[in-house]
Design goal:
This protein is mainly beta. It is 6% helix and 47% strand.
Length: 209
């Protein structure tokens, strides 16, 4: 999953991963001269290789997140102009929600809500800023995805992904031998159980930072 925060052009013209494939544009949000787009590689990953983003203007940043799963139906949402939040109801209680924002003015933008969201990119570049975050979801209740520090939010994007093998006999269920919830933080290291699992932690007690 690639998030591009851009200023100047409509959207990147292409995102490629070396010789192994082209990313498909999933979401585009264009509320002003600040753009936000999210792309995902619709096929098996065959890296390592170099990521190339073509056709951007003044790019605030690029985030890359590796997931093994599928998009949850039509799992996209965008914010209206000048809003720094998206209210979204997940379709699954065992999914990953990825979100990003491109802002006019800064300062550094950090993911603030819901509880357990992890900021994995925040950058302030002159008059613009960008940020993105990931959330291991464990509920089908509506969540409000909020970024802190946005002063004039131009574009915000969100997508939900259901992890590969989800369900009662999923790899996560095997890993969480004590029945730990996907979105909880069992050992208090600041990384949710779901993200610790994705990062390769041995179990829910292992420090994944």
């Amino acid at each position: 999953v690639v998030i591009v925060m851009d200023e100047g052009n409509d959207f990147p013209s292409a995102v490629t991963w070396g010789e192994s494939g082209t990313f498909t544009p999933t979401i585009n949000n264009n509320n002003s001269i600040r753009r936000a787009s999210m792309w995902y590689l619709d096929g098996p990953f065959t890296g390592p290789d170099s990521l190339t983003v073509s056709g951007v203007g003044t790019s605030q940043g690029v985030s890359l997140l590796a997931l093994s799963g599928t998009a949850a139906g039509d799992p996209v949402a965008t914010a209206s102009a000048n809003e720094d939040f998206i209210a979204y109801t997940p379709s699954s209680n065992d999914s990953i929600v990825v979100t990003g924002i491109t802002d006019n003015g800064g300062p550094d933008i950090t993911a603030q809500a819901p509880v357990g969201i992890t900021t994995y990119f925040s950058q302030d570049v002159t008059s613009s800023a960008g940020g993105s975050g990931v959330f291991a979801n464990s509920s089908t209740d509506e969540q409000v995805f909020l970024f802190n520090g946005a002063t004039n939010s131009e574009s915000m994007i969100l997508a939900e992904f259901v992890m590969a093998g989800g369900g009662p006999s999923s790899p996560y269920e095997t890993w969480a031998t004590g029945g730990e919830l996907f979105g909880d933080d069992e050992n208090g290291d600041g990384v949710s159980n779901g993200l610790a699992f994705l990062l390769g932690a041995a179990d829910s007690d292992a420090d994944a930072t």
